[in-house]
Amino acid sequence: MTRDFSFNSTVRLNSGQDLPLLGLGTYLNDDCKPACLAALKKGYKHIDTARMYGNESQVGEALRESGVPREEIYITTKINNNEHSYEVASSSVDDSLKTLGLKYLDCMLIHSPLSNKPSRLDTWRALVDSKKQGKVKAIGVSNYNVKHLEEIREAGLELPSINQIELHPRCQQKDIVAWCKKYNVVVEAYAPLMRGEWNYPEITETAKKVDYCHVIHSSI
Ligand SMILES: NC(=O)c1ccc[n+]([C@@H]2O[C@H](COP(=O)([O-])OP(=O)(O)OC[C@H]3O[C@@H](n4cnc5c(N)ncnc54)[C@H](OP(=O)(O)O)[C@@H]3O)[C@@H](O)[C@H]2O)c1
Predict the structure, then answer these.
(1) pLDDT greater than 60 at residue 41
(2) 94: closest CA among 150, 37, 40, 56?
């Protein structure tokens, strides 16, 4: 199945918001303002940052300097691994709003499940409440496997809108994708370009067949 992948393409989240399908990642880019400005000028509608990346302020500056209306751009950030508790996660949301210079976040994810079950659930409760308070429009998780997703479901809590995981032809994570499909959680791929290592015959041949080479090149 082919799908439209323009900058304006979106997918509907279980929370009702539309997530732009293409996003600019800012991992390992301490100086991401020029890239964000160039991307916004080119037409990108979605920027992915994280508290861990240390570049939220640059993302916010780029958004303001670009002159693009705030409501046209989708900003995702992520709770850091050492911020897993109700109190710390709640203040992380406030801190990210301040650092990005925004009145609301489009999406806040828990960056990874790397703590323990009670802390993960308390962190999730903090995000649920931040959403109720209007600070965040959509909430989600990242690097969660089925066990971590089931914890949320079994606790009777609101399910995430998004699970951001590594996903590309060499890392398909089919069990997680199937769970997310079943429960209407959007799977967001990170490292979709396989960190540049896509020179495998089965990939280049398939790309040629479906004329996807131009998509890969124009997205870099
Ligand atoms: N939630 C998480 O835990 C998590 C983890 C990882 C990433 N992410 C998000 O996903 C975004 C993208 O992931 P990613 O940056 O790890 O991986 P990616 O998008 O698959 O790949 C980017 C890497 O591939 C290289 N590359 C891209 N096209 C290339 C080409 N044509 N030839 C050679 N090298 C090429 C780039 O090198 P150069 O930059 O040197 O050109 C860069 O190092 C991140 O920026 C971040 O926002 C999230």
Answers:
(1) yes
(2) 56
